[in-house]
Amino acid sequence: MGFKEGFLWGGATAANQYEGGWNEGGKGLSAADMMSNGTHTTPRQITRTLEEGLYYPNHKASDFYHRYKEDIALMAEMGFKTFRMSIAWTRIFPKGNETEPNEEGLKFYDNVFDELHKYGIEPLVTISHYEMPFYLTENYDSWVSREVIDMFVRYCEVIFNRYKDKVTYWLTFNEINCGTMPMGNYLSLGILNEGTRDFTKQIDIPQLRFQALHHQFIASAKAVQLGHSINPEFKIGCMIAYMQNYPYTCHPQDVLKCQKLKEMGNFYCGDVQVRGEYPYFAKRYWEENDIHVKMEPGDEEILKNGTVDFYSFSYYMSNCVSHDPNLEGTAGNLMGGVKNPYLESSDWGWQIDPDGLRYTLNELYARYQIPLMVVENGLGAFDKVESDGSIHDEYRIDYLRKHIRCMEEAVNDGVDLIGYTPWGCIDLVSASTGEMGKRYGFVYVDSDDLGNGTFDRSRKDSFYWYKKVIESNGKDLD
């Protein structure tokens, strides 16, 4: 069997981590623009104003804003069928609450989409990817305010109408389930609670977080309905950071704790966006955590009528779960867990688990029975540039090869998988640490963690390998 004809091979980026041009073309400040750089041992800082002496890596990022033609040509050389990117809300509405959009920002994305179509590459556009307009954060407490829903829908209306003949595939919110976790306060929901500037230790108020998440659900559902009314051919999906967890042992408490963690981490948001209603376990969670989600009349109907067409997700690693607090921990995407003794780890301590992707795809398809897309997957690693300029990243090829093989097994299991876009196909800034040195790409960007370098692009060994993968529709993985 294998991958179906027309399978959407490509790569993924986000405007705030890749685009740059933070103060050009009429763009406003986003929440991401207010985060300083960090490392895997030093957390990023969130500042209320741009402070001298701090470096803000998202400002220049990978400089796609000035190099989009060069980068898209490299994607075309690899044979991309699709390119997952995001539109920066602040490039269209600099503050987020304006009534008239910024034409220069709209024109930039016109140019990007035209360049992609020149090479036959289908855009896959995330509407909101971790870059809330900072004005809304300061003046509305971001998604805590129900007023922001209408602002987001106005933004969607503008881009849906402008690009209705250029974009078919849309995602409403990136990793929306980040809002179920304390890290989601600022990163995903744009909530700037009083307290520490440390990105990893923000003061958490679950009531605010889950109310804000409800507003995102309503905004997403309204966007789906609006998009379908503007162009019935639109395919609009959700995007979940999938946290694959296993019980550490067969102890019933490990199994139960793992089940509850997966319910809230993976299924809480997916159920709302795919099934159109909160899952059965939400009520008890709210009661036990003193959360009172305020719903307006008609909200339930909005959710039911605004379900997505497909389910997309990120998958990087897996963790174990135990009721024993003394076991060795490990890092991961958005959340860590207990170290799995059967798995190896990346340079950043994320456990590498290709079989977990097959398990995840089957788990998701059994639950939702709609098309799936893996829109983030990859290995963050230190890359070494040799004296001749070559970059031998066999470790990345090995990671991707094993995950693609497991995707094919899931397809053969009967899963309807329609696309695969590895994360950071061209090197970009890390969302969690602000580093450039944590590289995912097939293309190397000559920039260090402080933005020093030429920003010139060069092909890694994985570039040529992935080109063969796409040419063979996933058959040639050697």
TrEMBL record:
Name under which the protein is recorded: 6-phospho-beta-glucosidase
Q: Which UniProt keywords apply?
A: Glycosidase, Hydrolase
Stored PANTHER family? 6-PHOSPHO-BETA-GLUCOSIDASE, GLYCOSYL HYDROLASE
Which EC number(s) does the record attach to this protein? 3.2.1.86
Record carries keyword ATP-binding: no
Its Gene Ontology biological processes?
carbohydrate catabolic process
Q: What class of enzyme is it?
A: hydrolase
GO CC entries: cytosol
Q: Which GO terms describe its molecular function?
A: 6-phospho-beta-glucosidase activity
Q: Which family does it belong to?
A: Belongs to the glycosyl hydrolase 1 family.
